[in-house]
Structure formats: structure tokens, C-alpha cells
Amino acid sequence: MEAFFFYTVKSIASLTLLYSVYWLFLKKDTFFFMNRFYLMGSIVLSLFLPLFSFPVSVDATGDQYAELLQTITITENGFNSALNENLNIYQVLMIIYITGATLFLFRFLFQILQLSRLVKRFGITRKEGLYIVSTDANYAPFSFFNLVFLNDKMQKDDAEKIIAHELIHVKQFHSFDIVVLELLTVFQWFNPVVWFFRYSLKEVHEYLADEGVLLKGYEKAKYQQLLLTMSIGAQVNDLSNNFNKSLIKRRFIMMTKMKSPLPARFKIMLVIPFISAFILVFACSNKENPEPLVQDNVTNSESQINSDVPPPPPPPPVPGSVEEQNAKNSIGESGKKVHKTVEVMPEFKGGHEAMVNFLIANVKYPENAKKKGIQGKVFVSFIVGKKGKISNVRVVKGVNQELDAEAVRVVASMPDWNPGKDKGKTVDVELTLPIQFKLN
Fold first, then answer.
1. Selection from 283, 349, 276 nearest residue 17 by Cα
2. Which distant-in-sequence residues (6+ apart) come within 8 Å of 180 by Cβ?
């Protein structure tokens, strides 16, 4: 759930960034094909770029900490109140999101059904590679893929110009763009930038169609008069390439506008630093050079956790030289160095929620600690081995002997995890789990 949330945030940020470039620098140019390519390319980048992680080698400085997991809060009744509040918020947001996505999906399917009913009702005739649907309804002419819907009372000369216009939409697959935008709207119905993309892309489609018609030699004034007349009719739905009233004025301006100078094409290069910034900010995972040990990466922790970050894990207090003890701490079940952060981190089987349920079911708040009013956060370090087994369980930062012992006991009793992976191989990974003991 959280992974999807962060993916969506990255996608929205990318869409916003790339659309801003279009609106500021490209929108007024007459390079319509390039603008269409830019808008569709921006959508593809924004959907797929957040899915990837680009390793960047950096020099590590300072001490290295183990991965810090989300704090688990245990009350004297064994109830994880803080987590349940967070889950309720996530659940409410997810219900709202799914409800909206479902409504827009039904809207999309209804629009397709609406078009299929028109085809079934009025039938089709083939002309110039198009399927013409002649209707008696007061609809403005429109097309959807190679289906062109015309009013059967339209004059022959007007119909010829309209077919020439719609043929551009068909040959350039403008309906494909519209379907992609409709599906994007299903998943990001709440994102206003998606609606800006929809409007701008349809605008560019009409510019391209107008340009194509005028290049065929049709008189500009008569064509513009036809557009005005046709825009009076009702629109069927948003899936169609239609004569939108709100676009007429801008279309007329673009028809009479001087062509943008060729050097203006290079303005599209402005997007490169924006994409680079997006990659660096949202899609990079830092790695140390040369070893895969990295600095602490705190994820999903409670807001107060920053003040409680433990010191670098010390060796457990057992006999032996410092060198022997450090060597022991750096060795996992595989006999190799323990990693701190890897490409694929270890995960409790069933996910975070399953781990929470396990801890709630198994952690017992010590009675003596209850009586004395002792509470606090215990940081427990442990290693998830190559086979997923838990080992080297120890307290990094404790509260008191009883709470520390209970935290170690329950972590040591965990079932096998899904092991971590680095460069395609399973490896030993050290994690730190904060367990908050809290009295009611």
C-alpha cells in the first residue's frame, strides 16, 4: 500500500514537472507533431521512471548503521494503537481512491458502450479506408479510431472537408492517445495535471488535423466557417476526436500564426535537466563504493524516531579481543560480511502487517515493568541470513533488563524471513527493529 502511495507521488511530481515545461516553453509553438510526441513521452516517462532505481556510487562517510525498520508500539494490553491509527488513515484513503478509480473505469466503459450502440443503431459504410456512421442525431462530427460519425443531413462539400479532417485523426492514431489518457485518468482521477494533459493533447490533435486539411488545398476561410458551424452540435463523449467549441478560437489563431522558427525546436532540450533532476531526487538509490555497505536508511519510522536513532551497533559483551569480536559481528550465517542495505531488503513473510500481528501476539509486557511504570523504546539488532533465518539478536539501545530481554526473546522467535538480495544473490543483512513499550 505504501509502495503504491510513493509510486503515485513520484508519478504526479514527474507529470507536474514535465507539463510545466510544455506550458511554459512549447505550448505556443507550431511544431504540433513534436508537441504531441513530448506530451505522450512525458506520460510514459512519468509512469515507468518511478518504477526503476538507478544505482549511484558515492563515497561513504562516518559510521554505518543497520537498516532501521518502522517502530512497533506495544501497549500493556498488547494492542498496537499507533499502528492501527495509521492503518485506518491508509484504509480510508485507499477506499476513497478505489471508489474514484472504479467510477472513472465505469465511465470509460460506458463511453465505449455508447459508441458501439451508435454503430449498431445506424450501421456503417466504408469510404477511403474509413467506416462512416451516418446518424440523424444532432451531434458534432467526431471520430474514434477508424470510425467517423457524421450527420446524414450534411452537405456533400462539407462532408468531404470533415472526412479529410477526421482522416488525419485516424492516420495519426489520435484515438490511441485519448484511450491512454482515459486509462491514466482512471488511476489518477484526483490529479489535476492529468486533466491538463487531456486538454492539451486534444488541442494538439486538432492543430494537426487542421494543418493536414489546409495542406490539401482547402480554402482557410471556408474551412473556418465550417468549423464554427460544426461546433454547435452536441458532443457524444470524451473518447471522440470532436469539434470542441472551447478550442475553436485557439485553432483559428494557430491557423493564421506564422510558423515557429526552426531553432525553436531546440527548446525541447530544456526537459533534459528536469528529467535528470527527477531521476536524482526520486529514482536513485545510493550505494557506497566499493563495498555494498551503506549509511543508515530510515524508512517508515514514527515522527519522533529521529531523536532516538541508536549509536553504531557495538559488539556484544562477551569475552574476546576487540578484533575477534568485530570479526564475529561482521560475519553472518554465510560466513561473509553482513550487509547493511541491499538492492532487495529482507522482508517478513506476509509483509509488514504480518510481522506486526506476530509481534502483538507474542510480545508480553513484563509484569514487573508494568508495576514500576517502566516504558520506552528498545532497539533490537538482528541478522537475516541468506536462507532467511534470524541470528545475532542483540539490544543496540535498551530501556531496562526486563523490557530488553522480552524484545530479544520475541525477535529471536520470529519465523524465517524472505532473505535480502544484492546483485541477484541472497546475502546476510543486518536490521534494527525499534519496539516501543508503552503503558496506557
1. 276
2. 40, 43
Residues in Cβ contact with 4 at an 8 Å cutoff, skipping those fewer than 6 apart: none
Q: Which residues of 89-104 are buried (b: 16+ CB within 10 A; e: fewer)?
A: eeeeeeeebeeebeeb
Say whether the peptide bond before residue 415 is cis (omega within 30 degrees of 0): no
Distance between CA atoms of 136 and 154, rounded to whole angstroms? Answer: 10
pLDDT, position 440: 73
CA torsion through residues 402, 404, 406, 409, sign: negative
Task: Tell me what pLDDT residue 314 has.
Answer: 43
- Note the pLDDT of residue 208: 96
Q: How far apart are CA 264 and CA 30, in angstroms?
A: 10
Tell me if 236 sits within 8 A of 149, measured CB to CB: yes
Using alpha carbons, select from 190, 200, 420 the residue that is nearest to residue 297. Answer: 420
**310-438 has CATH 3.30.2420.10 classification:** yes
What does the pLDDT look like over 388-416, one tens digit per residue? Answer: 999 999 999 999 999 999 999 999 999 99
Strands 417-418 and 347-348: antiparallel
Confirm if 175 and 131 have CB atoms less than 8 A apart: no
Q: How far apart are CA 147 and CA 132, in angstroms?
A: 6
The residue behind cell 526520486 is 282
CA distance 182 to 115: 15
How far from chain centre, in Å, is Cα 2? Answer: 11
Q: Is the pTM of this model over 0.85?
A: no
> Which residue in 385, 388, 381, 382 sits closest to 418, CA to CA?
388
Domain boundaries, the chain: 2-56+91-279, 310-438
CA distance 340 to 381: 11
Q: Cα dist. 374→79, 275, 323, 399 in Å?
A: 17, 51, 36, 8
